[in-house]
């Protein structure tokens, strides 16, 4: 029996998203399809699958991504859907932790890609905010004013997300000075 | 003020990321026998003295290291591609023409392993000398 849930996770909240999907799995709801803020679950044995997200270099339709997904398939990791370059992966629970990376360098590289993507979003928002500021009218009746307020607010929100990711990366880089 | 912070964050992010490439550039120009191999790369090379596919490499490494080194999919894929680029392993068509690609170590790869064993022996011997183990 399938159920659909709607939930919003921002780019930098991917670990919270993973945690939520694994919690749903423990409760017997196994994720089987994804869409924009849409998650489709089906009833199943609790904790049957473990879930991970990965941010690919290209869209899953690109041949390099397809090669990678085929490689994962050979290792028992199934691709169940994507949202842009984010792919949703699951593996049958065999009692061990399910990680996509086992060394610091790979984790840091992955994190860098996400940070770069978020930074580009912020850059784009900055440019559009400056564009709007040129026609600035401090008037609560002006639509442009409110759009400006919302985009600045969203920009600050994204910056907070980037700062969170940067903090995590700094921890990993420090750890990488000693361990692999 | 928000615009200034955005620029800072973006430029810091970009320099952070480009620093990674800078390190790689330095390393490429160093002689190969002065670079320590990562555990993942070392065990992948050791596993490929016989032709093996991805899953096989993971199992062999797990077995050789007594379950201590478990290569994760993303790490394994990246390392295999890097090793292919370096010419230390080569891809061979799998049996039964299945989609599964198999890999095999090359002569250059074997040289790298020999150099690495020499380096590891030096580390272990010095460790034993100093600690008296």
User: What composes the largest sheet of chain B?
Assistant: 3 strands, antiparallel
Which stretches of chain A are low in confidence, meaning pLDDT under 50 for 5 or more residues running?
none
Side-by-side strand order of the widest sheet of chain B: 1-3-2
Number of strands of chain A: 6
| Most extensive protein-chain contact, per-chain counts | A-B, 40 and 32 residues
Sketch the major β-sheet of chain A.
3 strands, antiparallel
Give the overall form of chain B: extended
Mean pLDDT of chain B: 82
| Order of adjacent strands in the largest pleated sheet of chain A | 1-3-2
Computed Rg of chain B = 19 Å
* Percent strand of chain B: 5-15%
**Low-pLDDT residue spans of chain B:** none
Order of helices and strands of chain A: EHEEEHEEHH
Count helical runs of chain A: 4
Q: Please, what is the average pLDDT of chain A?
A: 89
Gap from first CA to last CA of chain B:
60 Å
User: Beta-strand percentage of chain A?
Assistant: 15-25%
Query: Got a strand count of chain B?
Result: 3
Range of helix content of chain A: 40-55%
Alpha-beta classification of chain B: mainly alpha
Give a short summary of the structure:
Chain A is an alpha+beta fold. Chain A is built from four helices and six strands.
Description of the structure:
The complex is a heterodimer of chains A (180) and B (133). Chain A has 180 residues and is α+β, with helices and mostly antiparallel strands. Chain A has four helices and six strands; from the N terminus they run βαβββαββαα. In chain A, strands 1-3-2 form a three-stranded antiparallel sheet. In chain A, a hairpin with a 2-residue loop joins β2 and β3 (38-43). In chain A, α3 (104-134) packs antiparallel against α4 (143-176). Chain A is globular, with a radius of gyration of 19 Å. By secondary structure, chain B is mainly alpha-helical. Chain B has helices at residues 2-28, 39-47, 54-64, 73-86, 107-131; strands spanning 52-53, 89-92, 102-105. Chain B has a three-stranded antiparallel sheet with strand order 1-3-2. Chains A and B meet through α2, α3 and α4 of A and α1, α3 and α4 of B.
